[in-house]
Each structure stands twice: as C-alpha cells, then as structure tokens.
Amino acid sequence: MPHGTDAPVSTDTPVIAISCYQQQAAWGVWDAEAALIPADYVRMVAACGGIPVLLPPHGLRPAVLDRVDGLILAGGADVDAGAYGQPAHPRTASQPHRDASELMLLEAARARALPVLGICRGMQVINVFAGGTLHQHLPEVIDHSEYQPAPGVYGEVEVDTVPGTLAEAVLGPRLTAPCYHHQGIDRLGAGLKASGHNAEGLVELLEPESAGDWPGWMLAVQWHPEHHTEDERVVQALVDATRSPTASRLPTPTTPNPHDTQPPRH
Length: 266
Hints:
Elements lengths: L14 E5 L1 E7 L2 E7 L2 H9 L3 E5 L14 E4 L22 H16 L4 E4 L1 H9 L4 E2 L3 H4 L12 E7 L4 H6 L2 E6 L4 E2 L6 E6 L5 E6 L9 E4 L11 H10 L24
Parallel strand pairs: 1-4, 1-5, 5-6, 6-13
Antiparallel strand pairs: 2-3, 7-10, 8-9, 8-11, 11-12, 12-13
C-alpha cells in the first residue's frame, strides 16, 4: 500500500502490531510523555504489505492480540535485570513498565500461535521470557563497543546463519546489518536455539528449538532490520507467516493469566 494512500485495503491484509515506547519526547512545540516508535518500523511493515498499528506499554490486555495477525517486539531500553534474577549493571537502563507489557503480549501471542518477530530488545525479551539471561554490558565481555559506537549512531554486524534453520531459509548463509545494542544473549532460554552468530560467537538470531517448543512462527534478531531499507527480508517473512495456512490463533485462554495486569503509568 503506497505511503499516505487512501486506496481501499484488502480485507485479508495482515495487521501487524508493534510494541512501542511510552516516555518523554519532543515534537513541534510539545515536550511531553508520548507513545511512539521510530517511523522506520511503520514504513517497513507497510512496504511489506502489512497494516502497522502501535501497542503502547500501558492499558493493554491479552485480548488486543485477537485483533491483529502478527506481533513485532521492537527495540528500546534494556530489560530489567531483576527479570532474570541478576542485580543491575551500572550501565543497564531499564523500563519495567514496558517489560511487564511485552512479557504479557509475548505470553498471549504464544497462547494464540501468533507469528512473532523480536528486534534487538525484542530478542532479549523473548530470551528472558523463556528463562534465559543476558550479558548486561558487552564491552566488558568483548573489549569493544562497535555494536553501539556512539549515542544515536548505528554499528554494523556480520552474521552467519546456522544451516537448516528458519534463519537460513529467510536470510541465506550470511548477511551484514545495522546494529545498536550494548547487551546480548548469555544463557539461552528453554526451547530456544541460536540460529545465527557474529564472528565473535555472540548470538544474533533466535528461533524455537523445535516445532513443539513454540506454537506458531517465531524469529528474533539482535540487529535493526527496519533501519536497513534495502533488506526487508525479516519483516517480509513475518508478514508472509501471517498468511500461512498454519498461522492460526488458538482460543483465548480461560484460565487467569499471570501477566494479565495493567502496568503502572510512567
């Protein structure tokens, strides 16, 4: 669908939800708390044939996912170290209200077999959801900061995918992509496998260990595909997965959901 068009949208056009920030921001004459996401996410979802909608980390319930066809857990602040049982590093900057919201969304998406794509922070949320842990400050692990070279400046990473994985099917054997992170995967969560690494052996791609470990399509990347406008493969794969005959939602759970809480307003 062309940007800004008023043309009718097909009823089978997938709706892709994107988790977003809720924090202080400035635009025009305003400087106020806002729910927002970099427009790169929105443009890429639209370019790949989806309808983007934003899910702010406040006021949501699991049932919101009954109205969408796929979910992107977007980049952003660090995951709270307490979520994986560790004290916070001095460089860890978390937003617990967003953690609570996205962990709830992820559990609800899994229950509905909803296709999920994790991007940067989103990959880390998926790993923590599955019981994994994170390196809280990679420069102390790998002795450089090239993956987040300066505030607001993207680095670059080369990734080799693991043969026979979903990652290889989507991306081929090797790719180069923009990145912006100072944290990364340490211990893998249960039911997950690393399906891509960089030259230093750090995990760059996650997916389910087997079909039985995750009901539905799921892929997570440590880099920022939305910032690489010439390479839409990851987002396109999510949109395509929503059209797959196997992409179906399960009934809404009737048992109480431990994450079905409204996070505090920040």
